[in-house]
Amino acid sequence: MDKNMIIKVCGMREPENIRSIAALGIDWMGLIFYPKSPRYVSQTNSKAGIIPDYPSFGKAGSAGKSEGRIKRVGVFVDDMPQNIITRVYNYNLDIVQLHGSESPVMIDNLRRTLDPDIRPGVKIMKAISVSDSDDVAKYKEYEGCVDYFLFDTSTPMKGGSGKMFDWTVLDAYDGETPFLLSGGIGPADAQRVKTFSHPRCIGIDLNSKFESAPAVKDENLLRAFINEVRA
């Protein structure tokens, strides 16, 4: 994978941890708005400090990436559209990540509501849970109505699993939509990430394997990993 890949760190919540991890040069930061998640961000006004002033320490960025600041991703699981809209507005989200069974019709309606009146240019990412190549084909239902896919490990529970899947099944992905690789990527996987290759893969999603506690990321682990994959 290209060393300039997008690095998304998901499951952030604590203000000081957000500030320290943002300073590592990541591209996207994920906030989870799924009440059953141990990383759930309860409805808090952004001025309370949950979302610090990203531009003050955002990286320079490049075309298609940070554009001067870290992009904010909100993660939702089969939530009511009004709840999603409220959080996009309150947290100034750049990307809506849908991690449930949301339909293409729901996604189209959500985009029309958000863009341009509430959040011009908002992007939508659909998570696809996979365990084999047949699961990968589920993307076809959403091709053309989302901006990104996120391929994650299939699990009976909604949301992320913290477990890795066999990345070779993504050879079956022949869509046009760019995607992020997710699912249990940990500190020991830097070389595996670097050697993974797919023409539509633009980045990786990191979460539980870099935590000292739910929603608290280990700054040293992440720094070492990022330095290795960027080298």
Automatic annotation (TrEMBL):
GO terms for biological process: L-tryptophan biosynthetic process. Pathway: Amino-acid biosynthesis; L-tryptophan biosynthesis; L-tryptophan from chorismate: step 3/5. It comes from the Bacteria. This is N-(5'-phosphoribosyl)anthranilate isomerase. Residues 8-227 form the N-(5'phosphoribosyl) anthranilate isomerase (PRAI) domain. It catalyses: N-(5-phospho-beta-D-ribosyl)anthranilate = 1-(2-carboxyphenylamino)-1-deoxy-D-ribulose 5-phosphate. Signal peptide: none annotated. Belongs to the TrpF family. Its EC number is 5.3.1.24. Keywords: Amino-acid biosynthesis, Aromatic amino acid biosynthesis, Isomerase, Tryptophan biosynthesis. InterPro entries: Aldolase_TIM, PRAI_dom, RibuloseP-bd_barrel, TrpF_fam. Pfam families: PRAI.
